[in-house]
């Protein structure tokens, strides 16, 4: 006997094929020509479109939209598909598009991939296995991602790029060329501190005296040609009576990853 758990407020198309142990939550949608392998689970409000085929134990979280039409101007409703293996996880608001005729008509995913919230896989992409897409990682169409790749948060990848096995792409890195296997790719970091948030602090009721003390503290930290330890020592010596400066000093001394300067 095949045991499935289909919530009465879910929608499952007549042509959908569901394996044993499949769970479909409230308001979730399983579209036409969708095949879900054993143990797949749709959380409430998840949507899976077709034609698409999934292996075993895939999990679709709320508001993920998997197997939708390709985001391509030339798409006119042709039959294209998405094919995925086992044990993939699609977190909230993840989108994965089916293929296009001009791109081979198929988007493919391997197994054991983890797609964090808001990540996107465009049409005709080929994804290997055991990859990690961090929040907001975005693939244009026709991208190839090989096994064990990590794509950091908010990384856009240009169409037709390839990302080799075991590559690591750090957060907010724009990829417009192929990424060699085994490499670490990170955009240049130029984050700097420009002193205190004067307008914001004024709006929160900080007095002129408090603002002046903080400005003096940040001048020591950023512009006095002192290293951080020296700046903190000088703050403690000359501004230690101000509670805001004491808070700043405590924060700096407890920073395990350093501070933005």
How would you portray this structure in words?
With 261 residues, the protein is an alpha/beta fold. The mean pLDDT is 95. The termini are far apart. 17% of the residues lie in helices and 23% in strands. Strands 1-4-7-10-13-16-19-22-25-26 form a 10-stranded parallel beta sheet, with no helix packed on it. It is elongated and about 75 Å long. The relative contact order is 0.07. It has 4 helices and 26 strands. The chain has helices spanning 198-203, 208-222, 228-239, 243-253, and strands at residues 5-6, 11-12, 17-18, 23-24, 29-30, 34-36, 41-42, 47-48, 52-54, 59-60, 65-68, 81-84, 89-90, 95-97, 106-109, 114-115, 120-121, 126-127, 132-133, 138-139, 144-145, 150-151, 156-157, 162-163, 168-169, 184-185.
Structure characteristics:
elongated, alpha/beta, 4 helices, 10-stranded parallel beta sheet, 261 residues, 8-stranded parallel beta sheet
């Amino acid at each position: 006997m095949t045991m499935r758990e289909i919530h009465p407020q879910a929608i499952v198309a007549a042509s959908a094929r569901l394996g044993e142990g499949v769970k479909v939550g409230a308001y979730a949608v399983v579209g036409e020509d969708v095949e879900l392998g054993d143990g797949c689970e749709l959380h409430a409000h998840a949507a899976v479109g077709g034609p698409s085929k999934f292996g075993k134990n895939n999990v679709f979280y709320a508001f993920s939209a998997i197997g939708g039409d390709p985001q391509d101007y030339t798409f006119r409703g042709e039959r294209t598909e998405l094919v995925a293996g086992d044990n993939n996880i699609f977190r909230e608001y993840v989108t994965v598009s089916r293929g296009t005729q001009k791109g081979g008509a198929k988007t493919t995913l391997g197994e054991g991939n983890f797609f964090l919230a808001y990540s996107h896989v465009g049409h005709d992409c080929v994804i290997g296995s055991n990859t990690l897409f961090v929040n907001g990682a975005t693939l244009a169409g026709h991208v190839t991602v090989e096994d064990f790749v990590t794509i950091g948060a908010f990384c856009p990848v240009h169409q037709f790029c390839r990302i080799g096995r075991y590559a690591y792409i750090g957060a907010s890195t724009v990829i417009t060329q192929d990424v060699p296997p085994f490499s670490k790719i990170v955009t240049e970091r130029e984050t700097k501190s420009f002193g205190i948030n004067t307008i914001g602090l004024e709006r929160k009721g900080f007095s002129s005296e408090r603002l002046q003390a903080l400005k003096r503290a940040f001048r020591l930290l950023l512009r006095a040609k002192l290293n951080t330890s020296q700046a903190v020592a000088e703050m403690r010596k000359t501004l230690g009576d101000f509670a805001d400066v004491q808070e700043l000093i405590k924060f700096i001394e407890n920073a395990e990853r350093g501070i933005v300067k």
